[in-house]
Design a protein that fits this description.
Strand content: 15-25%
Number of helices: 7
Distance between the termini: 82 Å
Number of strands: 8
Largest sheet: 4 strands, mixed
CATH topology of one domain: GMP Synthetase, Chain A, domain 3
Oligomer: single chain
């Protein structure tokens, strides 16, 4: 009834890759997972204005590689790479007393209008500046159309315009097939903090279908490429159409008692007259005269 699963988590391992890529023993898994959370939280809060789309983390031995995808990477790198050193110090402070060997890479997001997370954050910032939510949604839809996306859907929920009762409004351009696994759908969520309360912003962007070759490469870590999208073949029947030995399987469920279903075992099924006889009145059999009487000819 209208509840939507997270589109990215729904497609992880099929058309989307994991944002944290590492292996760890069971005793260390929760510690490394919490470190990933602290790394993302520290970078996102401190460099929010840089337009960070996502943060990927890779681990190998004691080396941690952090890949930051940002719309304005210059704010993170700084002059002569001084910003990278600042990012390293901030992460080491958050992970104290652990100090892993960090490798920071910053990648540029070339088209922010097609990134769902950046679109959601842009709308949230406009709502905090008291811009009308309908105007912010229309502008985002128009920019996405100019960027040649296949479809985009935007939803805002909260006390829109300072209303007493919270409500939800949404708008869509194109098609957004959420239940199609091969569809490349990006999802983003942001929160606008206004004087009336918080307003949630959700954005879905449909960029087209992913070719089967790319899906095979992504699934190669789980299954072999040859068997990733093959259906198991049905077992061949014996030659000549002969059935294998064994008890014959009766179709259908158990027989039911009742009208037309027969009684106990051994009794005929159907009406009492048996098959082959018409329904209705039975034919009268000739009467046999009692002993000692002569039949009267009519």
């Amino acid at each position: 009834m209208g509840q939507k699963i997270h589109p990215i988590g729904f497609r992880v391992g099929i058309t989307r890759d994991w944002e944290s890529r590492w292996y760890a023993p069971k005793s260390q898994y929760r510690h490394l997972l919490y470190e990933d959370y602290l790394i993302r939280k520290t970078i996102k809060q401190r460099w929010y204005s840089a337009g960070i789309s996502r943060i990927e983390i890779e681990r190998a031995a004691n080396i941690v590689r952090v890949i930051i995808y940002a719309a304005r990477p210059g704010q993170i790198i700084g002059r002569g790479g001084q910003g990278i050193e600042e990012v390293t110090r901030a992460i080491h402070k958050a992970l104290h007393p652990n100090k892993p060997d960090l490798r920071i890479d910053v990648e540029d997001v070339r088209n922010p209008d097609t990134d769902a997370q950046l679109v959601a954050e842009n709308i949230a910032q406009q709502l905090e500046r008291r811009v009308s939510h309908r105007r912010a949604m229309r502008q985002a839809l128009a920019r996405a159309q100019r960027a040649n996306v296949r479809g985009i859907k935007i939803m805002v929920a909260g006390r829109l315009g300072g209303a007493e009762i919270a409500r939800t409004e949404w708008d869509r351009v194109g098609r957004v097939p959420l239940q199609t696994l091969r569809a490349d759908i990006d999802y983003g969520f942001a929160v606008a903090y206004t004087i009336y309360g918080t307003i949630g912003v959700k954005v879905w962007i449909y960029k087209g279908d992913i070719p089967i070759t790319e899906r095979r490469i992504l699934l190669s870590s789980i299954t072999t490429p040859e068997t990733a999208f093959e259906t198991p073949a049905r077992p061949a029947r014996p030659a000549g159409g002969e059935r294998t030995a064994g008890p014959r399987r009766r179709r259908g469920g158990p027989r039911r008692r009742g009208r037309g279903g027969g009684g106990a075992q051994g009794q005929p099924r159907g009406n009492a007259q048996g098959r082959g006889q018409p329904r209705g009145r039975k034919e009268r059999e000739p009467e046999t005269p009692p002993e000692g009487e002569t039949p009267i000819d009519e």
